[in-house]
């Protein structure tokens, strides 16, 4: 029999038949939501079949998609921290990362590109600046995940970004107060239990049918790089780090997916494409945009003081695309005290030739050499993929043509 009771704190607890009347009321094992993926999908809730929910809502009212982003992104940053022993951050949108990174120091060029040159930066804050800066267009309205207790520098960076919410294992009191004041008090702040481990098996339901599988507990490590079939077998420590970042990110990215990484961060993620080459081309285009934002011409832009930060981000991206319309360019020109000359294709090509030492991870094998041919145009020197294609020899040959070192991990990382 279903009914309504009260827990030990006097909070009203409803069972399945009555939860439809609740709105973002949380107990220790259930959170009723306003709606599911779309507003017409009511009622909706999340609940723990056994025990308690592993997170606490400290501020705001999370939605269905928020929680999907939160729980996927937390796993990513937790794994990055476990494997690399560095503070980690991720910027998630629609259940895939727009960026992920660890807290390595920033160059002066990256500080300026990410807009943090005048801000205090802890290692955790730097990790988020990198994750957010990878694909600033996609990260607009992101969900942030942080591997460590959130400090004030990190909270201050979060407070100025257009973001839906954050998940972390804890918050310094002043940092929590900063975040609680964001979005007029509506910013979502979740605290995850860092010791929580789900059961060995996971379930999902599709069209009334329940699927069950063993969770993907494969933990990336340098042991994955023992088989290197290419002539170049030199994986530097930095290459191994960046390949690990790439592969861990792919583990929580909607498949098919590939990831370009360099200098401790993702710079281009191609997610959810039906063909491998489409993944590579999408990720490569994002990596190119990331690197072109570092072009000296952009650092010299004379912005009007009234132009806001996100409008500057949008204007830089419009500056870099080839197919902007006359109407778009007319509006774009209004951002500047002096309208900058646009980069030519030749200038972009020359600049992109200076991008070197990029690591490329793939969640499944490369079926054709076109993936390698494309990657070579964007500074890729190191590759990690499961291997196992009938055309592995052709892909190895392609890597040899470009002097790339490629590891066969033997581990597929599909995520659906």
Shape: globular
Strand order of the largest sheet: 5-10-9-8-6-7
The rounded distance between the terminal residues' Cα atoms is 36 Å
Please tally the helical runs, counting DSSP H or I stretches of 4 or more residues. Answer: 13
What is the typical, i.e. mean, pLDDT? 93
The portion of residues forming beta strands comes to 15-25%
Counted beta strands: 19
Largest sheet: 6 strands, mixed
Keywords:
single chain; 416 residues; alpha+beta; six-stranded mixed beta sheet; five-stranded mixed beta sheet; 33% helix
Describe the protein in words:
This protein is α+β, with helices and mostly antiparallel strands. The protein contains 13 helices and 19 strands. The radius of gyration is 22 Å and the shape is globular. It starts with a strand and ends in an 8-residue tail after the last strand.
Give the gist of this structure.
By secondary structure, the chain is α+β, with helices and mostly antiparallel strands.
């Amino acid at each position: 029999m279903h009914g309504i009771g009260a827990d030990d704190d006097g909070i009203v607890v409803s069972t399945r038949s009555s939860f439809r009347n609740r709105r973002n009321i949380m107990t220790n094992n259930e959170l009723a939501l306003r709606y599911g993926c779309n507003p017409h999908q009511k009622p909706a809730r999340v609940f723990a079949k056994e025990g308690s929910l592993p997170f606490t809502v400290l501020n705001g009212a999370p939605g269905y998609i928020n929680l999907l982003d939160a729980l996927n992104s937390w796993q990513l940053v937790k794994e990055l921290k476990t494997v690399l022993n560095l503070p980690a951050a991720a910027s998630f949108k629609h259940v895939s990362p727009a960026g992920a990174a660890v807290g390595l120091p920033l160059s002066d060029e990256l500080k300026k590109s990410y807009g943090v040159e005048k801000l205090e930066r802890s290692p955790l804050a730097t990790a988020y600046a990198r994750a957010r800066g990878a694909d600033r267009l996609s990260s607009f309205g992101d969900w942030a995940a942080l591997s460590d207790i959130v400090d004030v520098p990190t909270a201050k960076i979060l407070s100025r970004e257009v973001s839906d919410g954050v998940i972390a294992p804890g918050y310094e009191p002043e940092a929590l107060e900063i975040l609680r004041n964001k979005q007029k008090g509506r910013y979502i702040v979740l605290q995850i239990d860092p010791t929580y481990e789900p059961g060995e098996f996971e379930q999902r339901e599709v069209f009334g049918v329940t699927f069950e599988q063993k969770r993907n507990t494969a933990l990336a490590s340098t042991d994955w790089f023992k088989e290197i079939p290419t002539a170049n077998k030199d994986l530097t420590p930095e290459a191994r780090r960046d390949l690990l970042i790439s592969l861990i990110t792919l583990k929580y990215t909607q498949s098919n997916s590939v990831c370009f990484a360099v200098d401790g961060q993702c710079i281009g993620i191609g997610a959810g494409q039906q063909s491998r080459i489409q993944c590579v081309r999408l990720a490569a285009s994002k990596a190119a945009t990331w690197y072109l934002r570092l072009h000296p011409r952009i650092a010299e832009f004379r912005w009007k003081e009234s132009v806001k930060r996100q409008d500057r981000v949008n204007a830089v991206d419009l500056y870099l695309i080839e197919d902007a319309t006359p109407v778009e360019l007319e509006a774009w020109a209004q951002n500047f005290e002096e309208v900058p000359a646009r980069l030519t294709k030749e200038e972009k090509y020359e600049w992109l030739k200076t991008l070197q030492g990029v690591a490329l991870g793939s969640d499944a094998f490369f079926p054709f050499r076109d993936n390698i041919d494309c990657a070579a145009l964007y500074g890729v020197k190191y590759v990690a993929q499961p291997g196992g294609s009938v055309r592995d020899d052709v892909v190895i040959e392609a890597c040899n043509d470009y002097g790339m070192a490629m590891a066969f991990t033997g581990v597929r990382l599909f995520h659906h």
